[in-house]
Structures are given as structure tokens and as C-alpha cells.
Amino acid sequence: MYLAEFAQAQLAGLKHLVLVGAASPVSFFAYPEIASDLVPEGCTVHVLAKPGDDSTAALEELADMLGAPADSAVLAEPSRPELPSGPLNAESFAAAIGALLPEDVIVVDEGNTAGLFVAGFTAGAPRHDWLCLPGGAIGYGMPVATGAAVASPGRKVLNLQADGSAMYTFQALWTQVREGLDVITVILNNQSYAILNLELSRVGAHPGPKALEMLDLTNPLLDFVALAQGLGVVATRATTAEEFSEQLEAAFATPGPHLIEAILPPTL
């Protein structure tokens, strides 16, 4: 889980933790003086369904055993943020997605630091599925978006993709074109491995110029529009909230693979 402190606060005081299609929570990274196992002391972990099991069937069987009423789920009221205007940053980018996200989209989230606000802004959006980075490895987003589109050919896939991790599996775009997959890739370009810069400060490190240079993506500057076009993908670049909203709305309305390079500031 990331950030570990937030997970610890949410889990604090629990006496029982029931896992349904999930693994026991552990920290994304290791930190000095902080346990990687996030289950609070004195909490008993119960595994109702392992990852890969039929979680819905397990929950239904549990409800039957407990005699729980089969009432319809209580859903939150639909709500959307207004379309943002002005500078494009992590918050306005997230607001645009919340304002425009259609029903039944599959969101693949490897936005990392630049995507921290998206879940909040899409909480009241039409029903959609969310596939999130399950661990500390990066490069997950593009191949998972490709797989989701293959598995669900009638649904639009939105891949929120951090710039640094995009460079691990960028060739997935070629597959999306070859197979005619309906995937929108949004590159969150803050020109750095920002999550690692953040982690340096969180562990109390004092990096020198060479260490900082290794986490910088401006030498040479990456041109994701040109890279995507070289693989056959329709690609655009957004530098303002208005440009991003316009390009995202157009991509939702047009089938086939698209890439939007969202130019964001280097910090939140």
C-alpha cells in the first residue's frame, strides 16, 4: 500500500481483517523504523477468498450463512466536478477525468504521484472498473490496459500512465494499433521519476547532483507525442486544463488507440 502511513491510520484499532480476493496489506516501500506488514498488532486476519477465487460467490455464501438480507446495495449519489480551466496540474487533470468519464470505462491507473487526486474526483462518476498498481513494480499500466481491451472488446479503456514508468513498456502501444484496441493512454509528464524523488525525502536521504540526475527525464527531453506517432498511435499534447479536457472528450468519442501527453509541473 502507498502511502503506508495512510494505510496504518485506516487499519488502526481493527480486531479482525477479512481478505476477499486480496493479499494481506504490506507497504509499497521499506522505511526505517516502520514495519512493512501493515496489519495492526492484535488483529486477526481471515481469508474469505484468495486472489483468483470467485469473490462474489464467497461473499454471497457468507451472507447466506449469516442470514444477511439481500437488499440492494446503497450507492452514492452521482456527482461530477465542473470542467476545470487554467493551468494543467495534478488536480485539474483529475477534475477533467471526473467531469468526462463515461459509463463502463475500464481505468488502468499507473499515475503514481501525479495521479493521486483522480480517485477522489471520480468517486461520483458513472460506474466504471478500476485496475490499480498492486505493488512496487512499475511499467504495469500499458500492458494491463492492452490486456483489458483484449478481454473486454466492447469497452473503452483509459490508461493513466506516469511518464517514467511508461518508458518500461511503451511498445504496448504498437500492439494496441496492430489489434485495433480501444485504449486511451494519458501520459502524466512531469519530467521525472517523481515518486522516487519523494521517497528520497521520506527516508531522510540527502542525494547529491548525480543521484538527482538519475531521476530526471529531461536529458534528453522525452517527446511522447512523437514516440506514439512512430508506433502508429494518434497523439496530442495538452498544456492547459482546457486543452486536456477537449482532447480527452474527443478521444472518448473516437474508437481506436489514442495518446494524450499531459504536461504537468514537476511537483504537486
TrEMBL record:
Q: Which CDD domains match?
A: TPP_BFDC
- Tell me a Gene Ontology molecular-function term this record carries: flavin adenine dinucleotide binding
Q: Name one Pfam family in it.
A: TPP_enzyme_C
Q: Where is the Thiamine pyrophosphate enzyme TPP-binding domain?
A: 126-261
What Gene3D superfamilies does its record include?
A: 3.40.50.970
Q: Which family does it belong to?
A: Belongs to the TPP enzyme family.
The protein's name in its UniProt record: Unannotated protein
List the taxonomic lineage: unclassified sequences, metagenomes, ecological metagenomes
